[in-house]
Task: structure prediction
Amino acid sequence: MQNARKLLTVDEAAAELGLKPRTLRQWIWRREIEYQKIGGAIRIRPEIITRMIEQSTVPALEAR
Result:
């Protein structure tokens, strides 16, 4: 297996987003975030976290 991609646990992904793991688990339960289910384990791809951050960025207003 070459350079296996690192999948994040719920706790790791929540830390990246600055959220409580409980919040992220609620998003998973409501299917508000993409995730991988491997056996009984829930994992989140780092790209998903990056995309969420980029999509939720609010641009600054232009100076008047």
In short: The beta strands are 36-38, 41-43.
